[in-house]
Amino acid sequence: MTKPLTKAALLAVEGTDEVIFFGELFKYMGMADMVDLREVGGKDQFKIKMPVLQKTTGFTDLETIVVVRDADESHEGALESIKGVLKKMGLQAPGKAGEFSRGTPRVGVFIMPDNANNGMLENLCLDTAADEEAMRCVDQLVHCAQKLKKPPKNIYKARVQAFLAIMPEIANSVGRGAQKGYWNFDSVKLQPLIEFINQLK
Asked: What pTM did the predictor assign?
């Protein structure tokens, strides 16, 4: 967290998976050297770790700050939570997710999976792979698992793990799946995120 910021833009995300995922996405978009990536250690840590980042060397030189977090059960709740954190930091938050404020630095917020629906990074990744043949196998497994006396608590995380487990080379996380090219970065489902990220250029 306290490593000096050396780029003009900062992207703060929940955890390691997101750091790896966005690292791969930035490579795909030709932006690998344009953004400092930092994880806060979970959705509930933004209020604690963002003020720490604010004291990091290079923070005052930032032109753009972006915060990305999962909507989980409430898109609006996630957005309001981040806006509250930014306000306490003295930063101008955007009016809604997917936009940037006009302050200095300008601040953008993206709420996974698409700035509109509840869910998380896993939902977005699954959407990009929806047409993969392997998903038929995943559907059968999940259908069976949902009939268990103790079914998976998070069906989307279960679907991701099932999908990654039957790939040619097993990946044990969303981020590792991105590194192995298992998520389709050309998918139309990724366009809202890519269009948002393009505003960092």
From this structure: 0.95
